[in-house]
Amino acid sequence: MDIFAAVRAMTKKFFDEMHAADGSVRPHYRVYDEWLARTPAERIERKRAEADIAFRRVGITFAVYGEEAGKERLIPFDIIPRVIPADEWKALQGGLRQRVKALNAFLGDIYHDQDILRAGLIPEDQILNNAQFRREMIGVDVPAGIYSHITGVDLVRAGEGEFYVLEDNLRVPSGVSYMIEDRKMMMRLFPELFARHQIAPVQHYPDMLLENLRTVAPAGVEDPTVVLLTPGVYNSAYFEHTFLAQQMGVELVEGRDLFVDHDTVFMRTTRGPQRVDVIYRRLDDDFLDPLAFRKDSMLGVPGLLSAYRAGRVTLANAIGTGVADDKSIYPYVPDMIRFYLGEEPLLNNVPTYMLRKPDDLRYVLDHLPELVVKEVHGAGGYGMLVGPASTRQQIEDFRARIVAAPEKYIAQPTLALSTCPTFVESGVAPRHLDLRPFVLSGKDIDMVPGGLTRVALREGSLVVNSSQGGGTKDTWVLENNGRENASC
Amino acid sequence: MLSRTADHLYWMSRYTERAENLARLLDVTYQMSLVPKPLAAENQNWGAILALNSLDEAFFARYDEANAENVLRFMVLDPDNLSSIFSCLRAARENAHAVRGTLTSETWESCNMTWLEVRDQKIEPILAGGIGAFFEWVKLRAAVIRGVTFGTMLQDEALSFIRLGGYLERADNTARILDVKYHVLGGGHGEEGASDFYQWGALLRSVSAFEVYRKVYRDIITPARVAELLILRPDMPRSLHACLHGVVKTLDAIRNPQSAETGRLAGRLYSQIHYGRIDDVLAGGLHEFLTDFMDRIYELGEGIRHDFLMPEC
Questions:
Q1: pLDDT of amino acid B28
Q2: Which residue, of A57, A183, B37, B63, is most buried by count of CB atoms within 10 Å of its CB?
Q3: Which segments constitute the DUF403 domain (chain B) (predicted)?
Q4: Which residue has better confidence, B45 or A39?
């Protein structure tokens, strides 16, 4: 039986990661395809059940906002990996380095000399009146000039070699624990696959992250103490916070565990106060310091901003990075690359209509059923319209919201996102996916090969966010473009 | 280690121990109620459990009579009673959840699994099917959690706080069980008939000490020896002596610059028991002795909180 029949039927319409348009299996998936053909369906079924039980037992879950308080859901995991050949990854990696470098340069610039504004590349008003622009950061020097230490760049593919950056995440990008857990799971379920392929490892990510955080400690600190600051048990990504803290061997702290004395941050320990040098914070700017930002924040640390500005502690990511991943700033990233690096962008931006511009607004309102419209400050797949997948009523409702405040929205053509065969109720079917590599910036810019592949499990859906019913896949970057290991 | 982490570990341990001892206390009360006696006397036994935990007011706001069924409903699965077994297991799990990164996955999973199982229980089938089986289950789960914890965790400061919470809670709970039962039994003053034998036997069984008693004394059960076993024997794992020894040793292992006074208080209480004689304890009144002991344990808990768990910086 051809379990990929449903996938092949769709390859004319969408780029499929595994199958070419003529239905043949792409070279880098051949070994996997042969393995799958030889593996009895019962074994696959058993392994899928095993994965489900294991994820539940370990408690790899996330909380969904708006559902019953404290309810935890399992994030669906698919056993067909997303495979990326070595050459393709190499090209992507170069583009990611370039992009993140430019974004950090941009942040350093707008919080210091603002050359890019004076050059007239971005309208001043869009930066200075942006809610994500933090005046408190003007003139503050950060170690190594790095603002975004951890950047999650969401990539999608629309065709052969045709990758687009969908968005940059420079605040508190999450999901890296799933990348690692998915790999662990695949190795546990199907060790033979790892003998047959040369798959680049990813499990050293926490070590790289820790090393990266240590390199950006305040000047003069010999052996920096790093902590991970979490909003607490009820945060949707709490599992990831505990996971990373444990893997790095650093303390997982909440705001109430820290205090500031003479611009120095301490944590309360059973042996008395201990100085903290680097805070990997998984808490939004607004909640960091009730003295500086939201007064009602119970999650932050009073006086933290002052200690930070004094250069006595490093925050990763820095305060005020949100201005660079704002969807209204996104269209300017290619210009930033040219402006700061003098290079042509290696990764494409999706063409974007800015609805604050009357011409763009008019066009978008005339073409809503074909477009994707997003809130400028939105994230997590909330507050967006996918025109082709929406009912007339939904489109009209959204139109009213746009007209009421056009500057709050951007629009993009609906990309034909690539698909990958995925196990669903009815068997194996093509489902759309994206890729989020995690780029680490410190003394150097580095990343583990691949990233987190998210897959939209609903048929036809283009929204991959876990809060919207998305799942994940293991992501394999092959070290040899897919030739079988000689030893097997 | 973070003070908050230590606090969660300590309370995870205390609540688990408390759930277990509550099961033991309710079990012995239930066992004793099986021996024929006037209804009033039996209800007095159940009422004593409420009084011991200062729960009279909360209980009588919702029930009119402190009889076996009502007290069991209230103390076993009632989510609104923060002292019920249900609430203790929930609190243990919540504390573990907050520091699951510090626990081994086996420890976390055993604690979480216990909560998931008790969460799905209903009181009616438990009452109908024999409450003893449920108490056995609670004791078993506590044993599993303890076994997995001590069998898998690194023997560092984290484990010390788990140990400390367990010893302190057990010292308090053993004193409570002994106090309430000794009182109800009229220790040493009544006729020692057949019924008393069963009552004292049930008390010993509740702290897994029946066989121990036989082995140690090789004689009939007398109230004074029961008191001696549960208070002064250093080799009886649930005795006040053994628990206090654990508290003193653990406090010494984790001592910090501000914990000297707490260490001294623990040492003083320990030596009082270490060098104590049962005749003297009984002469001064067992109830008075135990009440004082529980006050001292409370004082130690406050000291630990102040020195390690919630330091004011």
A1: 86
A2: A183
A3: 1-309
A4: A39
Using an 8 Å CB-CB cutoff, list chain A residues near B3. 257, 268-270
Sign of CA dihedral A182, A316, A384, A162: negative
Do the Cβ atoms of A328 and A354 come closer than 8 Å?
A: yes
Both B159 and B251 in one domain: the answer is yes
For residue B64, give how far its alpha carbon lies from the nearest alpha carbon of chain A (Å): 34
Of A233, A257, A259, the CB nearest to B2: A257
Residue ending a domain, choose from B118, B153, B188: B153
Supply the pLDDT for residue A70.
Answer: 45
Q: Please give the Cα distance from B305 to B110 (Å, whole number).
A: 26
Judge if B209 and B293 occupy the same domain: yes
The pLDDT value recorded for residue A483 is 54
| Final residue in a domain of this structure, among B130, B153, B176 | B153
From the CA atom positions of chain A, what is the Rg in Å? 23
User: Least CA distance to A241: which residue of chain B?
Assistant: B101
Q: What are the helix (H) ranges across A290-447?
A: 304-309, 322-325, 333-336, 358-366, 392-404
Q: What is the pLDDT of residues B173-189, one digit of tens each?
A: 999 999 888 777 765 55
Question: Domains in chain B: how many in total?
Answer: 2
Inter-chain touch A268–B105, beta carbons under 8 Å:
no
Instruction: Give this complex's ipTM.
Output: 0.79
Assess whether B54 and B17 both reside in one domain. yes
Supply the pLDDT for residue B42: 79
Taking only the tens place, the pLDDT of each residue in B68-113 is: 999 999 999 999 999 999 999 999 999 998 888 889 989 999 999 9
Contact B256 A59 (CB under 8 A): no
Residues B172 and B304 in one domain: yes
As a CATH number, domain A351-413 is 3.30.1490.270
Q: Which of A271, A275, A276, A280 to mutate to test the interface with B (most CBs of B within 10 A)?
A: A271
Q: How far is B5 from chain A (nearest CA, A)?
A: 9
pLDDT of residue A488: 40
Residues of chain B with Cβ-Cβ distance to A242 below 8 Å are 100-101
